Amino acid sequence: MLQGLEDLQTAVIPVVIVTGRLAGWVSGLVSYLPVQGAIAENGRLLHPSNSRNLSYCHRSPTGWQMGSSKPQVYQRLKAEFP
Asked: What's the predicted TM-score (pTM) here?
């Protein structure tokens, strides 16, 4: 798996890990794996690998809403990975 992630990084193909695990678990992963970040806690949390800032989302009647100051990250991920 690690070799595959390194190959994707070399080919400049961004990878985002998606998991239901908790923030602490993915924090460790994004610090040592060659990934752009992780979506954790069943879609509730975005953890970019180049930042210590976590972005939390919550479900509203009109759709997913960001609870942090980084909604542009969420919109970019949503556009790139529909």
From this structure: 0.62
